[in-house]
Known about the structure:
This protein is 43% helix and 17% strand. The protein is an alpha+beta fold. It has two domains: 8-175, no CATH class; 188-308, no CATH class. Strands 1, 2, 5, 6 and 7 form a five-stranded mixed β-sheet that branches. The structure holds zinc ion. Zinc ion binds at residues 226, 228-229, 231, 267, 269, 272-273. Residues 226, 228-229, 231, 267, 269, 272-273 line the site of zinc ion (ZN).
Amino acid sequence: xxxxxxxxxxxxxxxxxxxxxxxxxxxxxxxxxxxxxxxxxxxxxxxxxxxxxxxxxxxxxxxxxxxxxxxxxxxxxxxxxxxxxxxxxxxxxxxxxxxxxxxxxxxxxxxxxxxxxxxxxxxxxxxxxxxxxxxxxxxxxxxxxxxxxxxxxxxxxxxxxxxxxxxxxxxxxxxxxxxxxxxxxxxxxxxxxxxxxxxxxxxxxxxxxxxxxxxxxxxxxxxxxxxxxxxxxxxxxxxxxxxxxxxxxxxxxxxxxxxxxxxxxxxxxxxxxxxxxxxxxxxxxxxxxxxxxxxxxxxxxxxxxxxxxxx
Length: 311
Ligand SMILES: [Zn+2]
């Protein structure tokens, strides 16, 4: 707790410092990869230095940054840029709360996409953690998890430091996260499972004139856990109750879209609701990251296209 009994303003300032340091950590890791365009990187860096110095130029810089984010965000596939923008949206909320300034509509933007959390739940450090983990967009699941752990380890230490406490211990990364398995895709089924283990392949469609490949899959075909009580059920309430779609990106000029179908299941727990909709354990950003990982492997795009007979 960043508490200061004498001075609550001081407490809030520590919080802002911590959030700004989180953002700085993201900026520093951009040297390892290139998740976004240079223009966005520069605008973000500029805001962070303005936060630390001259507030008069900040408003203009922020609105310029938001415009550039909106220009770069592809509504269907972006997640990194969404975190980038949200990290500033939230920080401004915090700062305006501290200074007692009424929230400015210009600086407040609730537009979010592809994320399970509500806007106000995604604080700056949360966004920073995600961006730090996705330091390049082709990280593996294990590497992403390792980096998330590293980030929170750093964050706790940083928070403690602001309270005048030094933490000596370091988080221990579990051995299973240190392993990297070789990726082999030899069938459409394997491709679908790599995108999400919750998916089962059904069929595919090629829309030649739009250069679009539709891959139909079942989501949690053989049952799922109730999101309310956790009890597993394969007792179908209604078949193919939900139909949705994920656009994963492009592969050799083809747009790859997954159409998923899912059942609603009865919850057989008498103390729970009658039926439930599945709550996925694999988020859109996970699926998109899996796709980008595959795409980054030499020869893989051609191999996947060949499985579907698209050139
Ligand atoms: Zn239940």
